[in-house]
Design a protein that fits this description.
The chain is an alpha/beta fold and about 400 residues long. The protein contains 14 helices and 17 strands. The protein is globular, with a radius of gyration of 22 Å.
């Protein structure tokens, strides 16, 4: 591993931008306001932003690499490598792959969840981003409880979310049937069986939450639709609210000190594709603490600059939503900020074009893993040996 010297960038340090240099040491940040010292690699960041790497708590864009069209599958290892490249190219240095284990067959089936977990574990050493497993458990999938409990106990799950997508609108059933590889009639029959399990769901949720608490694994609840629902999950230990569907629920979460996650694509596009809460409004009201890539890896980077351009938050505070805050929510105290001793996850950005930040370089755990402008590398001459003269 080569120590890296980043010279003269506008670095985000302690919530403010300041022109400084920094040096990595192994996997960590060795020093701020540093001199080159023994660093073998020298990057000229003059005129560029130097920022902590993005932390993505909830991203399922990798599913598009696995199944780019309904019924068209590609190997999971190929999909993960492609997703890793996309994440890194967009400044994401820590990625939680949101893997849904549903009652559906197909893309979100038990078999796919098992294969994904096994493949992520096997491939972690060769992936550039710190790749973690976020299991999105469909609560009506009662058959999965025993196996998920085992995964939680063994520490194989990094984040654990409770989802309930059993209330499927008739207009969406055809799309879900295609994803599951079922006819419309077969999907409707399956859905009827799933809904009939509803009385047994609360007890299953309570058992799984107890297992997650015992294993010290952070929990999330998805699409909370009322303060009552948020309080119920909070009481179980799920202190991260993913995509609360209305302001009343978000306010209850803030009052209790919960983390609140919204999707960065919502900010970039100016609203939710489902017609629910507008994330920018929630951020302006102090009702959002984390932005996730959701279904589009470029969205976090773009959203931070969108919020700054629209005057909703200064860039330093907007960046907290995609770096320091998600790191805190996930319990990752070693990253999310530029500070001595923290993990050297660093991205260098050219922000000259409004709303179109360009990633120039990405350093992940002290390794230069992405570079789009080789002219920024400074080739320092090796020191000459002193030759004694008579």
């Amino acid at each position: 591993m080569t120590d890296i010297f980043i010279e003269s960038g506008r670095s985000l340090v302690d919530g403010e931008f300041t022109e400084t240099s920094l040096r990595t040491s192994g996997r960590d940040i060795g020093a701020l306001d540093a001199e080159q010292g023994r660093a073998a690699l020298h990057v000229n960041a003059s005129g560029l932003l130097v920022l902590p790497g993005i932390v993505d708590l909830h991203g399922d864009a990798f599913e598009r690499q696995m199944m780019p069209r309904p019924g068209v599958d590609f190997p999971i290892d190929v999909a993960l490598v492609d997703s890793d490249r996309q994440a890194i190219a967009n400044g994401i240095t820590t990625v939680f792959h949101g893997t849904t284990w549903s009652w559906e067959p197909g893309l979100r089936s038990a078999d796919n969840a098992r294969k994904l977990l096994d493949t992520i574990e096997a491939m972690r050493p060769q992936l550039a981003a710190d790749t973690r497993f976020h299991l999105r458990h469909e609560t009506h999938n009662l058959e999965a409880e025993v196996e998920i409990t085992q995964w939680l106990t063994e520490g194989r799950i990094d984040l654990f979310a409770f989802n309930d997508h059993s209330n499927v609108k008739p207009t969406k059933r055809g799309q879900l049937a295609d994803r599951a590889g079922l006819s419309a009639e077969a999907f409707n029959q399956l859905l009827d069986k799933v809904v009939a399990r509803r009385p047994d769901v609360p007890a299953s949720i309570a058992r799984l939450a107890a297992a997650a608490r015992a294993a010290n694994i952070r929990m999330l609840s998805h699409d909370d639709n009322s303060p009552t629902m948020r309080r119920e999950f909070r009481a179980l230990g799920a202190v991260i609210a993913e995509f609360p569907v209305n302001e009343e629920t978000a306010r209850d979460a803030v009052a209790a000190g919960d983390f609140i996650v919204f999707g960065a694509p919502n900010v970039v596009r100016g609203g939710s594709h489902t017609g629910w809460t507008r994330a920018s409004d929630m951020i302006a009201k102090g009702l959002c603490s984390v932005l996730a890539s959701d279904y589009y890896y470029p969205a976090q980077l773009l959203a931070a600059f969108r919020l700054a351009a629209d005057g909703i938050l200064p860039l330093a505070r907007a960046w907290d939503l995609i770096s320091a805050a998600p790191a805190r929510a996930a319990g990752l105290e070693d990253r999310g900020v530029l500070a001595t001793g923290r993990r050297a996850d660093i991205i260098i950005i050219d922000d000259k074009v409004p709303l179109r930040p360009r990633v120039v370089a990405v350093i992940a755990a002290g390794r230069l893993v992405h570079l789009t402008d080789a002219s920024r590398l400074v080739h320092s001459p090796a020191p000459r040996k002193t030759v004694a003269t008579a």
